[in-house]
Design brief:
The complex is a heterodimer of chains A (152) and B (118).
Chain A lengths: L5 H16 L4 E2 L3 E2 L6 E12 L1 E9 L1 H12 L8 H19 L7 E3 L3 E9 L8 E8 L2 E11 L1
Antiparallel strand pairs in A: 1-7, 2-7, 3-4, 3-5, 3-6, 4-8, 7-8
Chain B lengths: L1 E5 L3 H13 L4 E5 L2 H11 L4 E4 L8 H10 L7 E6 L4 H10 L3 E4 L4 H8 L2
Helix pairs in contact in B: 2-3
The chains are: A alpha+beta (152), B alpha/beta (118).
Chain lengths: 152, 118
């Protein structure tokens, strides 16, 4: 995978956090996903297809996921349920959709979001397609993005 | 002003509803996909404006947009795409299909207010 493909998703994450959450998100150094794989509590996943295939996952610790959706809705969310998962799914959808415009000349489609909830879950890797992990820091907490992309 | 929010994300509809309320728009109806929106539109006319997402299950926004524009009964209904689809070809496609305006998520409330002309 061309590591520059990660940059549109990083930019979209920073922009989305600024606009929707009202806070900065500082990306760390992207690195190849290797074992032991990072674990998460809540992940919003978007499939990518078209001139490139793969997925993008935005993953959060449980507490941060509550803070983010509470900020988006401007009301406290305290229960793990449809409101929380819908909010995380929409966040992933916006980031993926925004990133697409920066893939010059490449036609990409995004899927509807899927949200995985489970303390300490690990996202599997697709054989033969490298995944880049991008750690992020924000005043609300740390989170990570995993980008899996294979061009045709 | 009566506005219909069409988005499969309840979170996004809630955000939009809060923003509209802040602008003094409280007559708001909602739909979670294009098919539901077609029914709600028929039931609730006159509707002044639709804020329309693109990627939705059952019936997506583009299909809804084309169906509405085929029906002269809805000729006065303004439709603003409100979507994460940010590429220029998508914007052109929507405007050619009859959308009145286009707003890319994420957006500030001020951007929504400007598009609504409030």
């Amino acid at each position: 995978m061309d590591v520059s493909y990660v940059n549109p998703f990083i930019r979209a994450t920073v922009d989305t956090f600024s606009t929707m959450i009202g806070t900065g998100a500082k990306p760390g150094k992207p690195h190849l996903k290797t074992e032991p794989y990072p674990s998460h509590d809540v992940s919003g996943i978007i499939g990518l297809s078209g001139d490139a295939q793969g997925s993008i996952a935005i993953s959060f610790p449980r507490a941060l996921s509550f803070k983010l959706v509470s900020k988006m809705l401007q009301t406290p969310i305290k229960v793990m349920g449809p409101e929380l998962t819908d909010g995380i799914g929409e966040l992933a959808n916006i980031i993926a959709g925004n990133a697409k415009q920066h893939f010059n000349g490449m036609n990409l489609s995004i899927s509807l979001p899927n949200v995985v909830v489970g303390k300490g879950h690990v996202l599997g890797v697709q054989k033969g397609i490298p995944t880049m992990v991008v750690p992020f820091e924000s005043v609300l907490g740390e989170f990570a993005m995993e980008v899996t992309l294979k061009t045709k | 002003m009566k506005i219909m929010l069409v988005d499969d994300s309840a979170t996004m509809r809630r955000i939009q509803k809060t923003q509209l309320s802040g602008m003094g728009v409280t007559d708001v109806i909602e739909a979670g996909n294009g098919e539901e929106a077609m029914a709600r539109l028929q039931e609730n006319m006159p509707v002044d404006l639709v804020l329309l997402d693109w990627n939705m299950p059952v019936m997506d926004g583009m299909t809804f947009l084309k169906k509405v524009r085929e029906n002269d009964s809805y000729s006065k209904v303004k439709i603003i795409m409100c979507t994460s689809e940010s590429e220029k070809p998508k914007v052109v496609e929507a405007l050619k299909a009859g959308a009145n305006n286009y707003l890319v998520k994420p957006f500030q409330p001020e951007a929504l207010k400007e598009k609504l002309g409030i």
